[in-house]
TrEMBL record:
Protein name: Septin-type G domain-containing protein
Natural source organism: Rhizophlyctis rosea
Residues of the whole record sequence present: 13 to 308 of 409
Family according to the record: Belongs to the TRAFAC class TrmE-Era-EngA-EngB-Septin-like GTPase superfamily. Septin GTPase family.
One Gene Ontology MF term: GTP binding
Domain Septin-type G: 21-293
Cellular compartments per GO CC: cell cortex; septin cytoskeleton
Length: 296
C-alpha cells in the first residue's frame, strides 16, 4: 500500500535493541461507542483483533457498566514481532448518567502503574513486564462544533496520566473546510482548559528531515481519521476506504485523511518516545505522588 509504514523502519539502533527484546506496545482507545474505535484498531494494525465481535453486538445487550476489554495480538511484519495490546473501552456515552464514566478508565491506567511499581519493588527485577498504557487515542465525535463537556471532563482526567492523542472520528463525514475549522476549535478548547495532550518533542539538533517529519505530524493534531477494514476499488485498484456515491475516501491517502500520519507516529517514528515519556514522566509523577500519598 502506498505510504505504508511499519515498525521495521525504526532507526537502526532502536531497531536492533527492540528486535532482540521484541516490540511491545500498549494502546488504549477511548470515546463514545459507535465512533469507530474497534474499526480503527483493525485498520491500524491491518488485522482483525476482534473475532466474533459482530455476534456479540447483535445480541443487543447494553453493558450496565463501562466494561474494559483487553486484546493482545502478536503481529509480525517483515520478520519483526510486535506484541500489541489494545485496551478498548466500549459503552461509554450510552448511559443516562455519564458523569463518572472516566473513572474506571483512569483506574485501569493507574492499576497498570501499580502493577509495574510492584514489580520494581521485588527482589528480582530482571523480568519486569511492562503493561502500562503507552498511548491513549481519544475519539472526538465529528460534530464540527466544539468539544462536548464530557470530552473535556474525560481529557482533563486522563491527561497527566497517559499520552493523550486526540483524534477526530469518522472524518469522512465532514468536508475539508469543516475539518480545518473543527481542528482549530478543538485545539482552542484544549488550550483553554489547559489539557495536556501528547506533543511530539522537537529537537534543534535533529537532522532537517526528522525536523520536517515532526512538523508534519504536529500540524495534523488532532488527527482526522477514517477507518475501514474493507477494500474498495478505485480505477481498478483495490484500496482500503469507504465508498460514497460521489467517490471513495481512501484510508491510506494522506490527502484524504490523517490516518497515515497517525500510524507513522505510533508505530514508526514515536513508538519508543511514547514509551519513554510514559516511563520517565507520567509513571514517575504517579510514583512520586503515590509515595508522597498526595491526591490518590
Ligand atoms: P466503536 O463502538 O467505537 O468500536 O465503533 P465501531 O468500530 O464498532 O464502528 C461503529 C460503526 O461505524 C460501524 O458501522 C463502522 O463500520 C462505522 N465506522 C467505523 N469507522 C468509520 C469511519 O471512519 N467513517 C465512517 N463513516 N464510519 C465508520
Ligand atoms: Mg468497539
Amino acid at each position: 500500500l502506498a505510504g505504508y509504514v511499519g515498525f521495521h523502519n525504526l532507526p537502526n539502533q532502536v531497531h536492533r535493541k527492540s528486535v532482540k527484546k521484541g516490540f511491545q506496545f500498549t494502546l488504549m482507545v477511548v470515546g463514545e461507542s459507535g465512533l469507530g474505535k474497534s474499526t480503527l484498531v483493525n485498520t491500524l494494525f491491518n488485522t482483525s483483533l476482534y473475532p466474533g465481535k459482530e455476534a456479540k453486538e447483535l445480541s443487543g445487550e447494553t453493558p450496565k457498566t463501562v466494561e474494559i476489554q483487553t486484546i493482545s495480538a502478536d503481529i509480525e511484519e517483515n520478520g519483526v514481532k510486535l506484541k500489541l495490546t489494545v485496551i478498548d473501552t466500549p459503552g461509554f456515552g450510552d448511559f443516562v448518567n455519564n458523569e463518572d464514566s472516566w473513572r474506571p478508565i483512569l483506574e485501569n491506567i493507574e492499576a497498570r502503574y501499580d502493577a509495574y511499581l510492584e514489580q520494581e519493588n521485588r527482589v528480582n527485577r530482571k523480568r519486569i513486564v511492562d503493561t502500562r498504557v503507552h498511548s491513549c487515542l481519544y475519539f472526538i465525535a465529528p460534530t464540527g462544533h466544539s468539544l462536548k463537556p464530557l470530552d473535556i471532563e474525560f481529557m482533563r482526567r486522563l491527561a497527566g496520566r497517559v499520552n493523550l492523542i486526540p483524534v477526530i472520528a469518522k472524518s469522512d463525514t465532514l468536508t475539508e473546510d469543516e475539518i480545518k475549522a473543527f481542528k482549530i476549535r478543538i485545539l482552542e478548547d484544549i488550550a483553554f482548559h489547559k489539557i495536556q495532550i501528547y506533543q511530539p518533542p522537537q529537537y534543534e539538533n535533529d537532522d532537517p528531515e526528522t525536523i520536517q517529519e515532526n512538523r508534519d505530524i504536529i500540524s495534523r493534531i488532532p488527527f482526522a481519521i477514517v477507518g475501514s477494514d474493507k477494500e474498495v476499488e478505485v480505477n481498478g485498484k483495490k484500496v482500503r476506504g469507504r465508498k460514497y456515491p460521489w467517490g471513495v475516501i481512501e484510508v491510506d491517502n494522506e490527502e484524504h485523511c490523517d490516518f497515515v500520519k497517525l500510524r507513522q507516529m505510533l508505530i514508526r517514528t514515536h513508538m519508543e518516545e511514547l514509551k519513554e515519556y510514559t516511563n520517565e514522566v507520567l509513571y514517575e509523577s504517579y510514583r512520586m505522588q503515590k509515595l508522597a500519598g498526595v491526591g490518590l
